[in-house]
């Protein structure tokens, strides 16, 4: 811990002296490890390809003296790397490639990447060999846990992320405590729960306080993208003997967001990591905005974007994508709430990027915002916004909540991590590039508009893809997304027809004349 604190002390100097000068030599070691509960992560289709979501960091190679080391569990297809390098504005891809080192564990085991690296001392030595000056380097990761802290100490390179000792602030229970300190409205509920009895008592108490409550939400403290959430229906709950009724009905009435989840397993995970129970927020007009914030190594806090999240799943709690910026009716309110939360986190010495999620309900002409969680890490809204920044070199305007290019033009986007279809299976990264070129689905540097793909490695095996559609207004960005889906469905349809024809020919070749 002392060694980590000493290494982290270098971040302030890096931020103040190195970061402001784009030509100052530096190195960034990218460790895109999803260091989270493996049971929860295992329910996300193609989750091991999520290490590719941080490939937006390759855009840092537009800085002519920056070296970048990118480490993954499995090798990334060269076609995917070429795709990103060819997006670089103002830098030949050959120049950028000389400053890029790709390293891999060659290990597909369902354990965090950081753990795999720590188990490979020779790989750690190769990482260090690729860093010209460790005193001018930092580690960028998806989320920080004790494993990333240990990795920083072993490499002697500071970690630009939240200190793992403070990550409890980003749990579901910790988030409620921060919201309370910040004076932010949140759903009625209870935190720091550990057992099925705690769940039953909390649900019964919420129903007794609000006889009109239709549903309660149960969340694992370390759930990810809504996969650790469940709902319990209360509409026909009795007025008497409520605790006993809830206790008896829980195994039958609970509905999980994660496919395949079971009550016995969920209770076991709840006892292991803890969780919360909250009132379900009802409303005819309901949205889920979020604020993305950053506290830099010098302690300066700022809201850097707002989004409207696109949610799905059985009860609409699983993150699918986002639209930037959040609705004009409330984006500045969400931004202001983000500032208040940031001041509380700053008092704990939190550093790095994080997101704050809300449920917003319209009542007549006003919106009520309920804070529901803090994600002390990069998230699903991080890579689309940073891709926009790196591609256009513009700025977020806090006074309006809009993004402007250097020429003052507004930019919007619609992004998804879950563009998925079984028909997409079999399309390779090269196929996707061909489709994008044939249908003009790529980003145009001249207009600073277009389509950028990610999660490309998950396409062939899982039929899953990510996309960011950038345009000069929100309607056009959504239209660009719809056109992208239409093109992919069309091309996948041709592939499906070919498969069917191939299958019929194969069946015909193996049948006798009588058959």
Overview features:
single chain, alpha+beta, D-amino Acid Aminotransferase, Chain A, domain 1, 515 residues
Task: Give the termini distance in whole angstroms.
Answer: 74 Å
CATH architectural designation of the largest domain: 2-Layer Sandwich
What radius of gyration results from the CA coordinates? 24 Å
State the CATH superfamily name of the largest domain. ATP-grasp fold, B domain
The biggest beta sheet is recorded as:
9 strands, antiparallel
Low-confidence stretches: none
Number of strands: 20
| Helix share bin | 25-40%
Estimate nothing, just give the exact number of structural domains.
3
The name of the CATH topology of the largest domain is: D-amino Acid Aminotransferase, Chain A, domain 1
Give me the number of helical elements. 17
CATH class of the largest domain: Alpha Beta
Can you walk through the features of this model?
It is built from 17 helices and 20 strands. The chain has 515 residues and is an alpha+beta fold. The protein has 3 domains: 2-161, no CATH class; 188-279, no CATH class; 286-497, ATP-grasp fold, B domain (D-amino Acid Aminotransferase, Chain A, domain 1). β11 (289-295) and β12 (301-312) form a beta hairpin. The protein is globular and about 75 Å long. The protein starts with a helix and ends in a 5-residue tail after the last helix. The relative contact order is 0.11. The mean pLDDT is 92.
């Amino acid at each position: 811990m002392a060694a980590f604190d000493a290494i982290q002390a270098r971040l302030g100097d890096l931020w103040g002296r190195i970061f402001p000068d784009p030509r100052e030599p530096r190195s960034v070691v990218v460790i895109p490890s999803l260091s989270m509960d493996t049971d929860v992560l295992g329910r996300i289709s193609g989750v091991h390809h999520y290490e590719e979501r941080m490939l937006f960091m390759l855009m840092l190679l537009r800085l002519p003296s920056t070296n970048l080391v990118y480490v993954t569990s499995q090798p990334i297809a060269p076609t995917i790397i070429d795709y990103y390098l060819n997006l670089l504005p103002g830098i030949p891809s050959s120049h950028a490639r000389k400053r890029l080192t790709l390293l891999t564990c060659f290990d597909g085991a369902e354990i965090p990447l950081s753990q795999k690296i720590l188990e490979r001392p020779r790989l750690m030595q190769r990482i260090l060999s690729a860093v010209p000056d460790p005193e001018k380097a930092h580690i960028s990761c998806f989320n920080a846990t004790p494993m990333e802290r240990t990795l920083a100490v072993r490499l002697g390179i500071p970690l630009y992320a939240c200190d793992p000792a403070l990550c409890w602030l980003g749990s579901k229970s910790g988030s409620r405590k921060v919201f309370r300190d910040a004076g932010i409205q949140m759903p009625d509920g209870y935190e720091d729960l550990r057992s099925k009895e705690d769940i039953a008592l909390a649900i019964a108490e919420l129903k007794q306080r609000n006889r009109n409550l239709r549903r309660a939400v149960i969340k694992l403290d370390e759930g990810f993208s809504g996969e650790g959430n469940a709902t319990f229906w209360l509409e026909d709950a009795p007025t008497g003997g409520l605790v006993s009724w809830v206790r008896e009905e829980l195994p039958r009435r609970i509905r999980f967001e994660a496919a395949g989840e079971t009550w016995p397993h969920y209770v076991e995970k709840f006892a292991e990591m803890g969780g919360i129970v909250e009132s379900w927020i009802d409303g005819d007009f309901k949205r889920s905005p979020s604020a993305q914030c950053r506290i830099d190594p010098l302690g300066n806090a700022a809201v850097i974007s707002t989004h409207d999240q696109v949610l799905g799943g059985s009860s609409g709690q699983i993150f699918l994508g986002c639209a930037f910026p959040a609705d004009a009716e409330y984006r500045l309110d969400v931004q202001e709430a983000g500032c208040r939360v940031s001041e509380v986190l700053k008092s704990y010495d939190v550093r790095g990027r994080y997101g704050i999620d809300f449920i917003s309900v319209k009542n007549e002409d006003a919106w009520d915002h309920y804070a529901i969680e803090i994600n002390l890490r990069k998230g699903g809204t991080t890579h689309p916004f940073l891709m926009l920044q790196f591609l256009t070199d513009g700025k977020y305007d806090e006074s309006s909540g809009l993004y402007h290019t250097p020429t003052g033009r507004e930019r919007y986007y619609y992004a998804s991590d879950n563009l998925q279809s079984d028909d997409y299976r079999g399309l390779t990264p090269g196929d996707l590039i061909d489709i994008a070129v044939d249908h003009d689905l790529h980003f145009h540097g001249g207009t600073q508009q277009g389509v950028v793909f990610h999660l490309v490695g998950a396409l062939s095996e899982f039929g899953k893809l990510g996309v960011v559609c950038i345009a000069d207004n929100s309607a056009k960005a959504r239209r660009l997304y719809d056109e992208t889906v239409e093109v992919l469905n069309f091309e996948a349809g041709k592939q499906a027809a070919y498969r069917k024809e191939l299958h019929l020919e194969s069946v015909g070749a193996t049948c006798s004349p009588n058959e």
